[in-house]
Amino acid sequence: MSGHGTPTPMSSHASTGLSGEAAIPGDKSISHRSLILGALAVGETTITGLLEGEDVLDTAKAMRAMGAEITRDDDGTWHVHGVGTGGFAEPDQVIDCGNSGTGVRLIMGAMATSPITATFTGDASLNKRPMARVTDPLALFGAQAVGRSGGRLPMTIVGARDPLPVRYEVPVPSAQVKSAVLLAGLNAPGETVVIEREATRDHSERMLAGFGATIATEVTNEGRIITLQGQPELKPQTIAVPRDPSSAAFPVCAALITEGSDILVPNIGLNPTRAGLFTTLREMGADLTYENQREEGGEPVADLRARFSPNLKGISVPPDRAASMIDEYPVLSVVAAFAEGKTEMRGVKELRVKESDRIDAMATGLRACGVTVDEGEDWWTVTGLGHGNVPGGATCETHLDHRIAMSFLILGLATRKPVSIDDGAPIATSFPVFEPLMTTLGATIRRG
Ligand code: S3P
After folding, report:
1. For residue 299, what pLDDT is reported?
2. What's the pLDDT score for residue 1?
């Protein structure tokens, strides 16, 4: 089992006047998909702006283990020589996906309709997470899975020799499950159809079309019906990975709660399936504006300008917005602590099966810092204390979860007493430059 080495305790301290520009790294979701689709195309895909975080590097290793040739130039340009749909080689060794649910679930999907066997593992966090949500639909294609009890990793997938196309309604709002089914459908004959009731991030659909697959989405009363024609020859692409809105969330939220702040976060993708946090913050009264709005690579993009917002108000976040901001609830709960009144977050059961149980992890740490949090199975509320009134002063457990670690470090920038975390090492999975980027903006974040 992989790990993150020695824990890295960190702390954050009252700061003022965050300023300057925050250069956010590439989007994690798009980075994983660029490597996987590049590995399934015939010829050389070139990628710039790839997120070089541990999660994505683990996916690159996995694609190499399955036969793709992947190189990186000194300037950070990546080249992927793909093996073609159905061309994966059987890996010699166990595939270690580290902390990455996206990595393991997408790769399982991508190999499940090839006649190879692969065994997957991850770190202590990933090995607790449910995989049946992916292996159930993969079984319909003819793949077999044997894992630990509860459908947990380590797990072996025996790919289908004669895969069948599938029609599958995704029972949970999950882009990972949707994408695993679509990737499996690539090597099945005929049409694979995925139905999702709630729209989740649509990068797989957009990128599959970009790589030349025939894929169509129909929006109906029952949800989105996505139809993919199997066994295409994917054509290599030149991809410029946009910057990650989920990482941009941290400096943006830091600026909103830190007195005297005014920062610019350039070039952030505002794909509606990802941008729910920014809409929510604006509804709370955040001084957050979209500058220089434009389209890049078919995606809406803007420079985000975030300024200190002393008059934030708690709101009820509409449950149908959950999928578009699912990774941002931890940092939203931090902002909510500085708002006046209660912020209600409902329809968010999925938060309990992320890198950690994110409701439990945030509720425990926020309470230790003097904030009232109420919770149920699929909801939680944070009662804000208003600017200047959040006590802080606790050490919060991060449970091998990068977003929990970063959220508590943002909290400590505006609490009365510093906030510590037991381990900041997992931050490297998604946002390796978080610490230097935040300190350059003027945040006081320390090791130890
Ligand atoms: C992701 C989908 C989401 C998200 C994760 C990335 C993706 O997970 O939480 O960080 O790239 O498809 P779910 O599909 O489990 O909601």
Report:
1. 79
2. 34
Backbone angles phi, psi at 26, to 5 degrees: -65, 160
Joined tokens for residue 316:
């009820």
Amino acid present at 138: L
**Exposed, middle or buried, 7 (CB in 10 Å: 0-12/13-18/19+)?**
middle
Rounded-to-integer distance, Cα 30 and Cα 299, Å: 12
Query: Which residue of 28, 29, 59, 331 sits with most ligand 1 atoms within 8 Å of its CB, as the best mutation to test the pocket?
Result: 29
Give me ligand 1 centre to Cα 43, in Å. 28
Determine which residue's CA is closest to atom 16 belonging to ligand 1: 174
Tens digit of pLDDT for each residue in 204-255? 999 999 999 999 999 999 899 999 999 999 999 999 999 999 999 999 999 9
**Numbered ranges of CATH 3.65.10.10 in the chain:** 10-26+242-447, 28-240
Other Cβ atoms closer than 10 A to 340? 17
Dump pLDDT digits (tens) for 40-79: 999 999 999 999 999 999 999 999 999 999 999 999 999 9
- The model carries a pTM of 0.98
What pLDDT score does 3 carry?
A: 52
Mode of pairing for the β-strands spanning 419-421 and 10-13? antiparallel
Q: Mind telling me the catalytic residues? A: 327
Query: Do residues 172 and 191 lie in contact, with contact meaning Cβ atoms separated by under 8 Å?
Result: no
246 CA to centre of ligand 1 in angstroms: 11
Positions of E strands within 179-261: 191-196, 215-220, 223-229, 238-240
Fold assignment, 28-240: UDP-n-acetylglucosamine1-carboxyvinyl-transferase; Chain (3.65.10)
CA distances from 104 to 84, 95, 176, 180, 329 (A): 20, 9, 9, 9, 23
Cα distance from N-terminal residue to C-terminal residue, the chain: 26
The CATH class of the 10-26+242-447 domain is alpha beta
Distance 245 CA to ligand 1 centre (A): 13
Residues touching ligand 1 (Cβ under 6 Å) are 29, 102, 174-176, 179, 201, 326-327, 350
Instruction: Tell me the best of 58, 126, 202, 326 to mutate to test the pocket of ligand 1, counting ligand atoms within 8 Å of each CB and taking the most.
Output: 326
In whole angstroms, what separates CA 129 from the centre of its chain?
15
Ligand 1 atom with the shortest distance to the CA of 327: 9
**Cα of 212 to ligand 1 centre, how many Å?**
24
Ligand 1: which residue has its CA nearest to atom 4? 327
105, 201, 351: residue to mutate for ligand 1 pocket, most atoms within 8 A of CB: 201
* Residues of the chain below pLDDT 50: 1-2
